[in-house]
Design brief:
single chain; about 150 residues; four-stranded parallel β-sheet; about 10% strand
């Protein structure tokens, strides 16, 4: 499938998130609910990943050696803690402004995260593989999902 031929990207959603990109790391801003919920998400991901890959969830870097894809990464709110837990994280988002914010914040935090302004379809077409694929709070922002 060619990315140009079929995509789930909703351009109006990309534009909407691009306009708010500067607020990703403001815990009292428009993304406040994500900041508040993030510890729960991180704990859940850590628990399930460690159980699946037979890792010690109490270790400082329980995700070391795992390659994780964060689809719709936004400003990197999920990618950064996963990187701190040792994972090699690739964060993708169709909004270039989000990728710019995420990249800047990661660099300022001393983290190496592979952020890309691309789509899941493009990665699949390129044959990229990951140990874990996360698609958090994204499905409601896509279009033309093929459920067959």
């Amino acid at each position: 499938m060619s990315n140009a031929a079929k995509t789930t990207i909703d351009d109006s959603q990309v534009e909407w998130f691009s306009k708010m990109a500067a607020e990703w790391w403001d815990p009292t801003g428009k993304f406040k609910p994500l900041h508040k919920f993030n510890p729960v998400r991180i704990a859940y991901i850590r628990e399930k990943a460690c159980a699946h890959f037979a890792r010690d969830a109490q270790s400082a870097r329980p995700l070391a050696g795992l390659r994780i894809l964060d689809v719709g990464c936004g400003g990197g709110l999920l990618a950064e803690p996963l990187t701190r837990m040792g994972a090699s994280v690739t964060g993708i988002d169709p909004a270039e402004k989000n990728i710019g914010i995420a990249t800047t914040h990661a660099v300022e935090s001393g983290l190496e995260i592979d952020y890309r302004a691309t789509t899941a379809e493009a990665l699949a077409e390129a044959g990229e593989t990951f140990d874990i694929v996360l698609n958090m709070e994204v499905v409601e922002h896509v279009s033309d999902v093929d459920f067959s």
